Amino acid sequence: MSCVRSGTVRRLFYTGTVVSASPLMEDGSGFKDSIDETCWTPLNLSFAHFDSFLRVKSKTLTEREILSYGTDAYGTDGLEVISLAAGLVGGETLLPYMPSSVVVLISQLTNNEDMYQKLRTEASIAAAKSIAKSCVRSRSVRRVIYTASVVSTSPLMEDGSGLKDFIDETCWTPLNLSYAYSNPNLTEYVISKTLTEEQILSYGTNSDIGELEMVTLPLGVVGGDTFQSYTPLSVALFISSLENLPIKH
């Protein structure tokens, strides 16, 4: 309101967050055909692996309110309101404690493995969004092929009580369960690959975005050259016979 009353402010930037946007249906039964500015996170649902619902509600309702001032219906004389849906925000703070986003950003320096895994998941999802949106804006890309993983798909019931009658594209790995013979790194990898694939597929079914076809290849093992400073596990499995490593072979 202060910006409107000033008569001099023409553009307002609001620091939003990715948690306020979601392709989920309001009843949580599935995903919308596409995600755009009308897709808000349903506030009537509960989410696995999440303990900060008050922040989601606060940021979602606040962003809705701030964006409502960007129309002439409120007598704002063309005030342009822009929200920046940031995944992570880092920098100096006036808070008496270190914000969780900053903790995540410096997790590699502080050797905080749990936070570093979360950073990798956020980066994976953000990268998928960026690539998909770039393809949509180009208006020349008709098909996107995403290298997925078999760990993101499972015939397990959501509550782990048994197996579904069949497995298809609707069968995702339940992220609310614990699994034998797993470890923190594998668990975070499963979460990262599952959420990223769900995100990338949400762009592939709406003709309004140029009939962009999304194809995922859920691979079991991937081998080849790498830019990493170590030998990835999948490559190690491939060459285990040559190196005479019975455990991996």
From TrEMBL:
Keywords: NADP, Oxidoreductase. GO terms for molecular function: oxidoreductase activity, acting on the CH-OH group of donors, NAD or NADP as acceptor. It comes from the Eukaryota. This is Uncharacterized protein.
